[in-house]
Amino acid sequence: PGKTLLRLVTAEPQNELERQLAQIWKDLLGLAEIGRDDNFHDLGGHSLLVAKLLTRIERHFGRRLSMASLFHAPTLKAMAALLAESATAKPQPRLAPIQPKGTRPPLFWLFGGATVKPLAEAMGEDQPFFGVGLDRSEEDRLMAATTLAEFATPLMRTIRDAQPNGPYFIGGWCTAGILAYEVARRLMQEGSEVGLLMLVHSANPVHYRRIGTWPLRFSKLRYHLSTLRRLDGAQRWHYAIDRLQGIAESVGDRFRPPQAVAQSLSRVLDNAALRYEPPSYAGDVALFQPSDRPDVLDYRPGWRGVVRGAFASFEIPGGHRTMLEAPYVAELARRMSACLRRAQMQTDKRGVEQRRRAAG
C-alpha cells in the first residue's frame, strides 16, 4: 500500500547508516520504502523538507550538512557516504549545482536551494543555475554578524572561485535579494563587471521602513480579508488557520525576552538586512514582483531611487512564494530568461568592442 506502488524502488540500503538515513527519509516523505539510488529531490523533497532533513540529520548523526551538499549528494547512498566522512574531511561545497547544464554564462542565485529548483528547471537546460551558500564554519562565524557586508564577503569569494572574472549574473529572492544587491554592488566597486542583478520581490529596506508599521499592517489586513473572500470552503479555513498561526508566532516572539527567542542564521540575516541602507548602484537591475500582494508592498519606488543603471520591473502571477511554484513559475522563468539573454548579448557585444580596441 501507499506510494511504493506508484514507483520502482531501487536497491535496498546496504549498511546501518544507509538504513538509519532511509528511515529519516521515509518519515519526511511519507514513503514506505526508500532505495539507495533514490534522489531526495525527485521524491518530492521541497525546500521545507530539505530544511527538516538537515535538522534531523544533525540531531540523529551529529553531523551538520550544508544545503549545497544535498545537491552534490542527493541520493541515499551518496548522502550516507557524505555522512560517513570524518569530521576533518574537506570543507563542504558552498555552490549548489541546481541546474548545472548549458552553454550560457551561469546565473548565481544567493541561498538558492530547493525553493528555486522549479525556477532553475523552468529556465531550461541551456541556462546554468547555481545556488551560492555558506559552509557550516562560515555560518557559525556569521551568527555574530551585524551587517550585510559580513555576509557578502564569503559569498563573493564563492562566486569568484567558480568564475574568476565577470561578467557576473546574480539574483536572489526576498531577503537574499537585498544581500544580492550588496554583493553585486561590491563586485562592481572592486572593478568586476556585473551584467545583470535580478531581484525577486526584494525590498529596499529604507523604503520598507518608511512605509510605517500601521500602514503596513492595515494594508496586509485588507489583502488577507480580500483573499479570504475569494476562497471557498476548506481553502478559506486553511488560509485563515495558517495566518492565525503566523500571527501567534509573531506575537509570541514579541512578548518573550530576546534571549528566549531561538536565534538562527536567517534571523541574523533578516536583522542585518532591515538595517541596511543601499548605496547607489551603477549596474542594471530587473525586479520581479507578484501580482497577488498588498498594495503597499510595491518595491519599485525604493529601488528606482538608488539604481543608476537600467531598471526594469515585471508583474508575475501568484504571491510572494507561489510565484516560484507551478503554474506561475513558468511565467517568472520566461521573463527572467528574456532579461538574461538581453544582458548576456550586451556584455558579449561590449567584450568584442573592448578586444577590438585593445587589438587596434
Instruction: Give the end-to-end Cα distance, rounded to a whole number of Å.
Output: 73 Å
Q: What's the tally of helices?
A: 14
* Order of neighbouring strands in the sheet with most strands: 1-3-2-4-5-6-7
Q: Given the helix and strand composition, which structural class is it?
A: alpha/beta
The radius of gyration computed from the alpha-carbon positions, rounded to a whole number of angstroms, is 22 Å
The low-pLDDT segments are 1-6, 243-262
Tell me the strand percentage band.
Answer: 5-15%
Instruction: Sketch the topology as an H/E string, one letter per element.
Output: HHHHEEHEHHEHEHHHHEHEH
Could you walk me through the main structural features you see in this protein, from its secondary elements to its overall organization?
This protein is an alpha/beta fold and 360 residues long. Helix content is 51%, strand content 11%. It has a 7-stranded mixed sheet, sandwiched between helices. Helix 1 (16-29) packs antiparallel against helix 2 (47-61), helix 1 crosses helix 4 and helix 7 (148-162) crosses helix 8 (175-189). The chain is globular. The N and C termini lie far apart (73 Å).
Structure characteristics:
single chain, 360 residues, alpha/beta, 7-stranded mixed sheet, 14 helices, disordered N terminus
